[in-house]
Write a structure and sequence with these properties.
Order of helices and strands: EHEEEEHHEEEEEH
Largest sheet: 4 strands, antiparallel
Radius of gyration: 20 Å
Number of domains: 2
Helix content: 25-40%
Mean pLDDT: 90
Strand content: 25-35%
Oligomer: single chain
Number of helices: 4
Low-confidence stretches: none
Distance between the termini: 21 Å
């Protein structure tokens, strides 16, 4: 049995999803612009800038890690100028799956215990999936979701739709 149900987004659900995606894309663009302002590329954790990859470490900055073989840096907050840069780098926050889920469900995510009886759980959120130009809502089974203009797809409809777009079927 699948852990998810799929809905063809429509009506108010489609409008909310599109607005969220547009806002998320705008925040991502803002992060890239901020990084360019300081001559680097942003390293993010999905929500905020963790640092910038730069040709060399600037004075007053510290290496925070390595990604794809390149070090990335953040300014130390040891002066007003460096504090201002740090605040600028952290000024944009990208909304994630938890916030998207909360647009459609009141349950905070669906917790799933491990199948093998071990410790730990997973939290599943409602997320979007583009199949070509079609926006789908992928909803955890059992989530507190009431469609508002969206239509639930049978799993056969979902897979048939994915097969119409070659890269989606892979």
């Amino acid at each position: 049995m699948s852990e998810r149900e799929y809905y063809l987004a429509g009506g108010e659900d489609l409008a909310k999803a599109n607005a969220f995606i547009e806002e998320r894309n705008k925040a991502s663009d803002e992060i890239n612009e901020i990084a360019k302002k300081y001559g680097g590329e942003a390293v993010i954790n999905g929500r905020i800038i963790l640092g910038l990859t730069l040709p060399e470490k600037p004075e007053g900055w510290t290496q925070k890690g390595i990604i794809e073989g390149k070090p990335y840096y953040m300014p130390k907050r040891t002066s007003k100028a460096l504090k201002a840069i740090h605040e600028d780098l952290r000024s944009v926050r990208i909304q994630g799956a938890m916030e998207f889920h909360s647009l459609f469900c009141r349950d905070g995510g669906k917790m799933i215990a491990r199948d093998d009886g071990g410790f730990g759980t997973r939290i599943l959120f409602t997320v979007w999936e583009w199949v070509g130009d079609t926006l789908l809502l992928s909803v955890p089974v059992g989530a507190d979701f009431t469609p508002n203009g969206s239509r639930k797809l049978k799993m056969s409809e979902y897979w048939a739709l994915k097969e119409t777009v070659p890269e989606a079927a892979e």
